[in-house]
Amino acid sequence: MNFLDNLTTKGYKNELHLKKAIEDNWFFDWPVIMGIASREEVNAASLKELQYLNGLADKKQEMTMMPFMGKGG
């Protein structure tokens, strides 16, 4: 079985299923995507720690976007 066959038989059935999986896991993926925690740290975190890591990820995104907000015009 080649790579493309593997994707169609074992991958997501369609883009809607992929988007749903991303949304369902966002709470665990967001801190990793933002570089706040590793996958291992997220997997070992308590609910309270996950909430904190997600809050830090949100704050990092806000601070990253600050130079672009309110400029111009």
Notes on the protein architecture:
This protein is mainly alpha-helical. It has one domain (13-64). The protein is built from four helices and no strands. It has helices at 3-10, 15-33, 39-44, 47-65. Helix 2 (15-33) crosses helix 4. The protein is extended and about 45 Å long. The N and C termini lie far apart (57 Å). The mean pLDDT is 88.
Keywords:
73 residues; mainly alpha; extended
What does the largest sheet look like? none
Query: What value does the average pLDDT take?
Result: 88
Strand content bin:
under 5%
| Contiguous uncertain segments of 5+ residues | none
Shape: extended
Distance between the termini: 57 Å
Structural Rg: 17 Å
Q: What percentage of residues falls in helices of 4 or more residues?
A: over 70%
Report the structural category.
mainly alpha
**Secondary-structure element order, N to C:** HHHH
Counting DSSP E segments of at least 2 residues, the number of strands comes to 0
What is the helix tally? 4
Number of domains: 1
Topology (SSEs and partners):
Blueprint: H1 3-10, H2 15-33, H3 39-44, H4 47-65
Helix pairs in contact: 2-4
